[in-house]
Specification:
Layout lengths: L4 E8 L4 H12 L4 E7 L4 E6 L6 H9 L4 E2 L3 H5 L1 H32 L6 H16 L1 H12 L5 H21 L15 H25 L1 H7 L5 E5 L5 E5 L8 E4 L8 E6 L2 E4 L1 H4 L5 E3 L4 E2 L4 E2 L4 E7 L5 H14 L3 H31 L4 H15 L2 H21 L2 E3 L2 H7 L4 E5 H5 L5 E7 L5 H11 L5 H12 L9 E5 L3 E6 L2 E6 L1 H7 L5 H12 L3 E7 L2 E9 L6 H10 L3 E5 L4 H11 L3 E3 L4 H13 L4 E5 L5 H6 L2 E5 L4 H6 L2 E3 L5 H35 L4 H4 L5 H20 L10
Length: 740
Amino acid sequence: MATTVKNNFPVTGMSCASCAISVESMLKAQRGVINASVNFAASSVWVEYNPEITNPKSFREVIQSIGYDLISDEKEADQQEEIKQHESAVLKQKTIFSAILTLPVVIIGMFMMNLPFANWIMLVLSTPVVFWFGRSFYITAFKQIKHGKTNMDTLVALSTGIAWTFSLFNTVFPHFLMFGDSHPPVYFEASAVIIVFILLGRMLEERAKANTSSAIKKLMGLQVDTVTLVENFGIESIQPISAVKIGNKLRVKPGERIPVDGVLLEGTSFVDESSITGEPLAVEKSAGSSVFAGTINQKGSFVMEAQKVGSETLLARIIRMVQEAQGSKPPVQKLVDKVASIFVPVVISISIFSFVTWMVLGGENALPQALLTMVSVLIIACPCALGLATPTAIMVGIGRGAELGILIKDADGLELAHKINVLVLDKTGTITEGKPQVTDFLWKNENSDVLKSILLSIESQSEHPLAEAISGVLRNERVQTIPLNHFESKTGRGVLATVQNSKYAVGNELLMNEFGIQLTPEDKKTADALQVQAKTVLFFGAENQILSIIGITDPIKDSSRAAIEKLKRSGIEIHMLTGDNEHTASSVAKKSGIDIFKASCLPEDKAEYIKNLQQQGKVVAMAGDGINDSHAMAQADVSIAMGSGSDIAMDVAKMTIVSSRLEYISTAIELSKQTIRTIKQNLFWAFIYNIIGIPIAAGLLYPFTGYLLNPMIAGAAMAMSSVSVVSNSLRLKFRKLDIE
């Protein structure tokens, strides 16, 4: 099976939801493209494709054929911000110059129609506005029609083109169509003002949309360009970040951003990790401590070893995750896409129906009234607001989470989070600190030096946090390791090993029983005494006997109880699952305020437990460390990884709480509620605007009030609808969340 590639490409020229659907459908139709998802608000598209069949160059060609452009070249992509700024400057110039030319046209059209050659003056001034400053509408509309597609530009081109052509005809042949004693109607001012309002609306919309992606810009601003490389004999040199390789030694001075992920070799300092974790307090670092790219070294100078560089750093993965999440679509967007895909053809049909109706029923002024309503319907209809309603809210919501250290993998996870009614918590690293400490080392044999070497050799092979705690204590005693003949991990129970032809086991009581060791009454009494103190008990045994009993404690986080109480008050049921024994589980549950728990769980038991809850109709979230809990997290409706270090956590989880603090879960749920509420508000106003606006534009009020909507007002209303939707989404950025 060929390996697929997934990349994000900027797209220029999109002006509405129909544009986004056209780009998406054209890309999906290309041979070798697995999937494509356009984010109209971000002006970009994620494309998953087979590089052996197709490539970005062919994407660009097909997108250009329908009037847009896709930036496929990496150098151009790097200059994306400059390209956007240039486009914004051009749009601003078009808006200003078209407004200057349009102002006298409006004044003449509204107040000075008796001015000699008034129509000819308006014709001269409005023509460059419609066909030069507004030429992009006509070019894109023509390219769309060639492919049997329509978009917002089609509506603009039709409405302004019809209004201008009708006005031109009445200017050149003023007596051909008789309108009594009145001047033949012209709509030069309407066609010009419509162009100005739409250009102004797009300019305001672009500015507002730029604010929705501020979180990504902030994250990208954390990346450094140069590093101080420490070479042989301590020689230091300034090098570009691209030159750093895994294993390189780097000097980080006070005030500098840490360039890559790594571990401290020399020196001590305090590092501000708020940009990654959302935590305001600086963290003390010393030799052996992990540091992450994008965080700030506050005080001491230190030397670090690079462990992850380039796209593998935590910061790079966070940026990519946020970009992908902002480009993803929640289920509600599928309905919007369906509506947008048929929106423009329906609007054109309504405008034609309106024209015909007024021609039949309009009396002596049938033609100008029919044209007026047709143009108004074409102009007031706005798929832009529909297209922006969901992605702008998603972008702001996910960006807001990223700023707080809450990484949301996709829009689906964000939408589901507000429905959570059961939260299942792993114990270690979620409720507790996740930093086990050995408190009791009880040896049955006084001559334990050789046994310590054997135990260290076995535990050094295990990546389990409890094994690391035991290894740390033995290394501090300067115990030496010896070679192993065999090593085997038993998930949820411990490890087996063979050393110098003797078999050993390290793990819980269940493993001891499997290994053929029965605990003596004295062993059980010792173990029970430790478990009453909420300690995890491990046994080190050889054939037929226990060699050592080890007591390990993992302190409960200071904030866990308050966080759990808050979640319970919001109506969420809290469950705790742990592989630990009943005594320890009961003690931790009691101290943290959890009423429902299950002890001695294997990974498959946790997944089955969650499945049972789902069968009861519950929406279940699972929070764990993302490694031994990955099976259960995959089963849950919403999976939450606690911590920043695990690749598996970020791959499996729909959400990652970088700081590992439990209270951020309630913040994530609150953020989900606010985002979904904003999406619903946006969609309501986008739909209601068209439901009310289109009938009024078609002349529904005329029989009752004698009012026909002026196309200029329709153009202004259309422009402001998009701006209002984006502005409503931006309110999310300024709403206070409970963690702040």
